Amino acid sequence: MNKKLFYFIPYTLWLVLFVGAPIILMLLQSFMSIDGQATLANYQIFFGSGTYLRMMFNSVWYAFLITVITLVISFPTALFLNTLRHKDLWLLLIILPTWINLLLKTYAFIGILGHNGSINSFLQFMGFAPQQLLFSNASFLLVAAYIEIPFMILPIFNALAEIDNSLINASYDLGASKWQTLRHVILPLSADGIRAGIQAVFIPSLSLFMITRLIGGNRVITLGTAIEEHFLVTQNWGMGSTIGVVLIIAMIITMFVTRERKKGGNKY
Amino acid sequence: MNINKTRFWPTIYLIVVFILLYAPIFYLIFYSFNAGKYMHDFAGFSLRHYRQLFNDARMMEIVFNTFIVALLSSLIATIIGTLGAIGIYGTKNRVMRNVILSLNNVLMVSPDVIIGASFLIFFTMLGIGLGFGSVLMSHIAFSIPIVVLMVLPKLNEMNYSLLDAAQDLGANSWQVLTRVVLPYITSGIFAGFFMAFTYSLDDFAVTFFVTGNGFSTLSVEIYSRARQGVSLEINALSTLMFLISLILVVGYFMIDSYNSGRKAKKGKLSA
Amino acid sequence: MKQPIIEFKNVVKSYGETQVLKGVDLEIEAGKFYTLLGPSGSGKTTILRLVAGFSSATSGDILFEGKRINDVPANKRRVNTVFQNYALFPNMNVFENVAFGMNLKGTSKAKIKTKVTQLLAMVRLAGYENRNIDELSGGQQQRVAIARALANDPEILLLDEPLSALDYKLRKEMQYELRELQKNLGITFIFVTHDQEEALAMSDWIFVMNEGKILQNGTPVDIYDEPINRFVAEFIGESNIVNGVMLEDYLVSFAGSTFENVDAGMRPNEQVDVVLRPEDLDLTTPENGKLVVTIDAQLFRGDYYEISAHDDNGNEWRIQATNSAQINTRQGLTFDPEDIHIMRFNESEDDFDARLDNYEEVGEMDE
């Protein structure tokens, strides 16, 4: 028995020190003013001023857009990938870009979208004037969606791969067309994968701050950007923590909405 | 059913997706060989940016730091995470087990910014100075749940009567661990180590919060340089990083397929 | 002759290099219970998938009521399938599963409700409408799968080893129910199985398959009594197969003696396989026996004894007897001329049928 506890000591220490403590500290910090006094002012400012609410709305809106874009691109990709012969190899090729440092991929877009970058050269070649592509909302959406796509494809692909092929045959057999099979059989059966994908994309998208700075040029302010700003620039940790707590609550809501739904009774 | 007709558009679609996924990466690599100074107007092939990179003492030190942090953090996280997974596996109380698993996943689902900011408060509160130590600890912290998630399924698929059999044959609990359990979950441990290693290499946000002025990792350095504008030295670096990623992926899958291949063989023998 | 509902004309199916169907011809008439019987890998499920439209033939024609349907997709064929693993949609309950096809067609809610109720009553699952699939036993899932397939009013119901996942008793029960169902509905059933007992019990007509070919087709009684070759004889029921020589019409020699039989139409002194079913053999005293054998072993099988013995020429004999026998005693073996069945080597089904027709006519004229 004691030996079992011994295995557990370092892991438990980690749970207490790095999972429990930081979150509690952040919660406490959110009730502190910039000079260390206990206060509710941070929350009053957050929910009282239009700036923060607008920022939160913005953040949720952009995360929503990013999620929708990635979902629209990823579902057909996952669906088609599943019909390929060496599908595991192709899936590996989808995952490979996620192994490349996020910063490097973002950096690539600075070159591609820049004033003299390839897209503008192409526009000029076609006879259009070069556009300001970098530091725009669209470029932020583009890069964020690019980064998140593999994380959406993966869970959907796995859910689709688990669907028994005879279910799809059964659907055709009973007279369903391709669309009807997709709608009535494939979509419902891959719902858990789609939910997992939404979770994997929406939550990080709420808190992006690096891409907003490098690509969005501070035009898009998200919850993530604001937290970074308060912690590392203005040093107002209390306000930063308050935004952090709001973000955590948003995260919990997202997870609740997209939780796995088990149909039927318990199987145990 | 009419395979030729129905396969055409999906194939086109997939090709476009793959091109979009890889275009930025190859764009970076392509311009790392540019003799010119910018990420446009290719002026001829040259390795000057690679030379420049290797002569950049600060960059080389940062690359070294990054790998040391990745290696140490993933090693330590693998040890703690594996022990933790064994502990969770041994926890028979369902409620307790679910509570631990949920806590385990907190850092997996938390946004990086929250992890970074809360760790910053934590280190400051404890009076731990920001630098190598705080970065290493943070990386260990966010890698442990990954290792647990890779090792636990292996443990769960292990037949519990294996442990009973080992004890029945006279093994003490240390021998059960080293002779039965660890060999069985080796592939999970390796997978966890690899994942932890790449997470550490890839991390930007957490490190950005808990690194002080004196210490930097690649991601943080690229961020600060990128804010000042394009430097093809970074392209050269990305090409090298891409190659390392490729080697890691190939290595990971060789281990993976070696393990499953061995399992298949064993399955055949026992059949 | 009646127009066959399904017809295969020299149908070949290959996956890459391997041919799983090697030029199959078959005809299926409406309203009968057909069984495709063969070991796994014989191509029987492939035929089913071709009829259903889940895969397409590499070459050859598949006709439905005389029209070529090779390119008609599965959802446009008036054929429905009961899958081996039932393939019930886990995201729908029993009602929704059965109503699936009708919902797609836009049948009215009231009609759907009546029809589902009626179908569930027919498969004895009345009142199960709102159950989830994972709450049903294997036998119940099986019935839902049948009801779902029948809801589309198919001309043909395809059943892909539907009983293989059920336990022995339930399987027996379902054999009766399926046969009953087919008779009541009057539609064509095509049933795939590797279980010869099942095939013999249920079918109007059996196709015996091996290695992508149909070896023999006929009524269960024909196939049991007149197997065309060693494979069919061994696959269907238990057989004693010994080497013999057909001396002349109606005279065969095997196991060191010469016997009268009822086969004809072969070359004089042709080498043949001789088949005797264990249940056609009777034990008697050595002096009354046509053959003399030594008893080796016996097993009690409940309704009979299964006795194994050998004759003086070294042939093994298996006998089903109502009374037990003494081990190591010598016993006589008797059988009637019509119990002897002769199989020529490499005789095709057409030649076999032609020969049978020929000498049966001759035999009738003699009488």
TrEMBL record, chain A:
Assigned keywords, A-Z: Cell membrane, Membrane, Transmembrane, Transmembrane helix, Transport
Superkingdom classification of source: Bacteria
Signal peptide bounds: none
InterPro entries per UniProt: MetI-like, MetI-like_sf
Pfam families given in the database record: BPD_transp_1 (PF00528)
Chain ranges of the ABC transmembrane type-1 domain: 56-258
Subcellular location: Cell membrane
Transmembrane segments: 12-32, 60-82, 89-113, 133-157, 196-216, 236-258
Entry membrane topology: Multi-pass membrane protein
Entry similarity comment: Belongs to the binding-protein-dependent transport system permease family. CysTW subfamily.
PANTHER family: INNER MEMBRANE ABC TRANSPORTER PERMEASE PROTEIN YDCU-RELATED, INNER MEMBRANE ABC TRANSPORTER PERMEASE PROTEIN YDCU-RELATED-RELATED
Name of the protein described by the UniProt record: ABC transporter permease
From TrEMBL, chain B:
Transmembrane segments: 12-33, 62-86, 106-130, 136-155, 176-198, 204-224, 236-255
Protein keywords: Cell membrane, Membrane, Transmembrane, Transmembrane helix, Transport
Membrane topology (UniProt): Multi-pass membrane protein
Subcellular location: Cell membrane
Domain ABC transmembrane type-1: 63-252
Domain of life: Bacteria
Stated family: Belongs to the binding-protein-dependent transport system permease family. CysTW subfamily.
Protein name, entry field: ABC transporter permease
Source organism per UniProt: Periweissella beninensis
Species classification: Bacteria, Bacillati, Bacillota, Bacilli, Lactobacillales
TrEMBL record, chain C:
PROSITE patterns referenced in this protein's UniProt entry, alphabetically: ABC_TRANSPORTER_1, ABC_TRANSPORTER_2
Annotated SMART domains: AAA (SM00382)
Record field: transmembrane: none
InterPro entries the UniProt entry points to: AAA+_ATPase, ABC_SmlMolc_Importer, ABC_transporter-like_ATP-bd, ABC_transporter-like_CS, Mo/tungstate-bd_C_term_dom, P-loop_NTPase, PotA_ATP-bd, Transp-assoc_OB_typ2
CDD domains: ABC_PotA_N
Source species, domain of life: Bacteria
Keyword Aminoacyl-tRNA synthetase: no
Gene Ontology terms, MF aspect: ATP binding
Residue span, ABC transporter domain: 6-236
Keywords: ATP-binding, Cell membrane, Membrane, Nucleotide-binding, Translocase, Transport
Pfam families, per database record: ABC_tran, TOBE_2
Protein name per its UniProtKB record: ABC transporter ATP-binding protein
